[in-house]
Amino acid sequence: MMGVLRFLSAAARRYFVALAATIGMAQGAFAANYEFLACPATDLNRVYRLDRATGEIGACQYGLKEGSVGVTLCYPPGEGAGPQAPSEYSLVSSRHVGESGVFRVDLRTGMMSVCYVLNDAVVCTPQAR
Question: DSSP characters for the chain?
Answer without folding.
Answer: -HHHHTTS-HHHHHHHHHHHHHHHHHHHHHS--EEEEE-S-TT--EEEEEETTT--EEEEEEE--TTSS-EEEEE-B-TTTS--SSS-EEEE----TT---EEEEETTT--EEEEEEETTEEEEPPPB-
